[in-house]
């Protein structure tokens, strides 16, 4: 049996889970818990629970591919319209919040929803408590050297400045024990793609997760984004993305960095990336993993089938 544990959040983690479920019998998603916007932010503030949105998306990504699984995926992702108290809430967020209140445990609630969806694995929060992200940002003042703190996932993701680094509040939060176990017992662990500072790097600010990533015998893969993001990583090269990993988790070792071939420029750019990867003891793999439109145009999404094929080859080594 092949076990894969994927770390991340949002649409990036959704894409990864859609890929790894094709090659693994057991998939565990370890999900960020710092969302403070939209439906998740409202439930977090009103109930004091972990924000459920990214957890809901991970459950939807792993739902069974039969008719019942597809129905429940659609139900989980459905958002109420109108202007009343429920407007904007995703049904899945309310189900997770309600089950958490009844069962007294977010992990138990997620396992119950996972059973309902027939998923082939588990969805776990990276920490058992809701967290905040605070970023050091430059470019918000006339003097571009001035560093200002920006707090909150939404604020960090939409800042017009450039993020230098992040930290979690409270600092050094505990990890969900089952998430640590999933990293330690996996055959492969993936990190990324996704919003680098708000979905990927937060995992590297949880000490027990970093310790597990250092100690695991799993093959550790980072899937790089297809492009930089406005605000968060505007102007970032692939090399810069890798440097951010090393900066936020010194002494972290990885095995493979997967890069879409179309995102790379000339030999010099590849050389910079490979030298950055070498500081993490990682090999760079260049492959076609971008989704293509029916008219032949490129998208900014990873193709789950292509990613699965490359990761399957890596596993088979």
From TrEMBL:
Family: Belongs to the gluconeogenesis factor family.
Localization annotation: Cytoplasm
HAMAP family, per database record: Gluconeogen_factor
InterPro entries listed in its UniProt record: CofD, CofD-like_dom_sf, Gluconeogen_factor
Predominant place of localization: cytoplasm
Taxon lineage: Bacteria, Bacillati, Actinomycetota, Actinomycetes, Mycobacteriales
Protein name per UniProt: Putative gluconeogenesis factor
Domain of life: Bacteria
Entry keywords, A to Z: Cytoplasm
